[in-house]
Design goal:
mainly alpha; G protein-coupled adenosine receptor activity; transmembrane; two-stranded antiparallel sheet; membrane; 12 helices; 344 residues; receptor
């Protein structure tokens, strides 16, 4: 006998049986999500803070990276708490809250995940243009254009997420699969073109005697490292989201018939949210400018919290010199120096 209850607001059903059968998966999902929540919020906020407050980092590529960090920050501060609440309502058997929190969680999570995937695709296109067509890149890619493109990507992601509440699960999963395929194909094609262009430019520079040859080689090495960083981010996205997409597709075709499927769903959900914590760690490890800016921001915050005033090194040097002059002017004990008061 089917004991599931359909939600009236969207295509979702409540079934109390798996809660008892695979209770461990619910606890695992809640614990992992809560543990990843605070690092995701803090690290992504730090990345957003240093990019927006550091003048040298306000470049189009870093502004796209800031948009990606914003999506991950939203996942930590909104999606993960909502998801944990949704799981708790399922454990407690509150059908009304289960349906409401499920609808909100689905919309917020798919919006943020979609914005992150679109931004990662845009970063790959940005780097490909910067390397493959540098003159066209300088003419077309401006900070204003990047902001406009980011807003459009967020709007498209929100619209796509809303279809989860309107469409049948099978149709939604089909559209999600097409979107992921197009985005991943774009990322891979742009990466291949960029790496081939870097290799060609490196061979040209090595075969020519130029005044700024060393500077150009350093720039090419920087581009290459940035591209590798984007591929590492893509690898972690796949590791975190492919299990969820796989389980969701199986569920869309066969339904949530077995307890094993329900347990796999819970585990895959929580693994997907881990990506928001991993991404800022990759930025700091792989991009020296962002790493140094984050270290400086942390030092400044630590100094202010400890009640210390950060004084420039030049001021400290002047103060030490003035103090040495004062000490030299004070006569030693027992000396016969002139102790007459100064003339007013």
């Amino acid at each position: 006998m089917n004991s599931s209850i359909e939600c009236s607001s969207w295509a979702k059903s409540f079934d109390p049986k798996p809660v008892t059968a695979v209770f461990w998966s619910y606890i695992f999902s809640c614990i992992l999500t809560v543990l990843m929540l605070t690092p995701a919020v803090f690290l992504n906020f730090l990345v957003i803070f240093v990019i927006t407050r550091t003048r040298s980092l306000c470049k189009p590529s870093n502004m796209l990276l800031c948009s990606l960090a914003l999506a991950d920050f939203g996942t930590g501060i909104l999606a993960q708490p909502l998801y944990t609440t949704h799981i708790v309502t399922e454990i407690e058997g509150d059908v009304t809250l289960f349906c409401v929190t499920g609808a909100i969680t689905a919309f917020v999570s798919y919006t943020l995940a979609g914005a992150g995937l679109f931004t990662l695709t845009a970063i790959s296109v940005d780097r490909c243009l910067a390397i493959y067509r540098p003159m066209k890149y300088r003419a077309c890619v401006t900070p204003k254009a990047v902001v406009q493109a980011s807003v459009c990507m967020w709007i498209v992601a929100a619209f796509g997420a809303s279809t989860r509440l309107l469409l049948n699960v099978k149709y939604f999963m089909f559209s999600l699969g097409v979107t992921m395929f197009v985005s991943l194909t774009t990322i891979l094609v742009c990466s291949v073109l960029a790496f081939r262009s870097l290799k060609t430019q490196k061979e040209q520079i090595a075969g020519e005697m130029r005044l700024h040859q060393g500077k150009q080689m350093v720039q090419l090495a920087s581009y290459r490292k940035y591209l590798k960083t984007m591929l590492i981010l893509l690898g972690f996205v796949l590791l975190c989201y492919v299990p969820f997409v796989t389980v969701t597709m199986i569920t869309a075709m066969n339904g949530m018939e077995s307890n094993a499927t329900r347990a796999a769903w819970n585990v895959a959900d929580s693994i997907g949210y881990m990506n928001s914590t991993i991404n800022p760690v990759v930025y700091c490890l792989r991009i020296p400018e962002i790493r140094r800016a984050c270290q400086k921001a942390l030092r400044d915050m630590g100094a202010r919290r400890g009640g210390n005033v950060v004084v420039p090194a030049k001021s400290v040097t002047v103060s030490l010199r003035q103090r040495s002059h004062v000490l030299e002017a004070i006569p030693e004990e027992g000396s016969t120096a002139n102790l007459e008061p100064p003339v007013c």
